[in-house]
Amino acid sequence: MAEKTQTAIFAGGCFWCMVEPFDSLPGIVKVRSGYTGGHVDHPTYEQVSAHSTGHTEAVKIWFDPEKITYSDLVELYWQVTDPTDAGGQFQDRGDNYRPVIFVNSAKQRQIAEASKQKLIESKVFANDPIVTKIEDAVVFWDAEAYHQDFYKYNQARMKLQDAQREAFTEKHWNKN
């Protein structure tokens, strides 16, 4: 990948659902599903799903900052997650589905923190506190091959998986 490419790591429920919103944006080089934030090397889906590794499902995004900014990615992140639910996301429950922005630099932390504060001040979620964590990025382990690009090959399953997320987005972000 080009030297100018940067990375972002976001956790917000099932990684299957987190790939598609970012994958088709101009400036995105690639998006991978994986696991991060845990204490086991090379975790498997079964281990992470059993809550025995401390990992969360996440996506790692390689992007060209000349075409799309990290700030743009963070803004989209807020719109495809429920930042008020620390116990998982939509139908996906458990600590492996917790919402986290994993930052890999002081600049990313500043952008993510400022964006979170802006979201709090916007009162979009006036009745619920924003609980999304902002943590330092640690080792990101690619998920198994069958998890990569899942949305492209399993559209019927994705339609079911995305229903709650889409209803939430419509309720909070598409108000007129």
UniProtKB/TrEMBL annotation:
Domain Peptide methionine sulphoxide reductase MsrA: from-to ranges: 7-157
Pfam families linked to this entry: PMSR
Active site positions, chain numbering: 14
Signal peptide: none
This protein's record includes keyword Oxidoreductase: yes
GO MF term set: peptide-methionine (S)-S-oxide reductase activity
Cross-referenced Gene3D superfamilies: Peptide methionine sulphoxide reductase MsrA
Catalytic activity: [thioredoxin]-disulfide + L-methionine + H2O = L-methionine (S)-S-oxide + [thioredoxin]-dithiol; L-methionyl-[protein] + [thioredoxin]-disulfide + H2O = L-methionyl-(S)-S-oxide-[protein] + [thioredoxin]-dithiol
Enzyme class: oxidoreductase
EC number per UniProt: 1.8.4.11
Protein family according to the UniProt entry: Belongs to the MsrA Met sulfoxide reductase family.
PANTHER family assigned to the protein according to its UniProt record, in alphabetical order: PEPTIDE METHIONINE SULFOXIDE REDUCTASE, PEPTIDE METHIONINE SULFOXIDE REDUCTASE MSRA 2
HAMAP family cross-referenced by the UniProt entry: MsrA
Protein name: Peptide methionine sulfoxide reductase MsrA
Organism of origin: Oenococcus sicerae
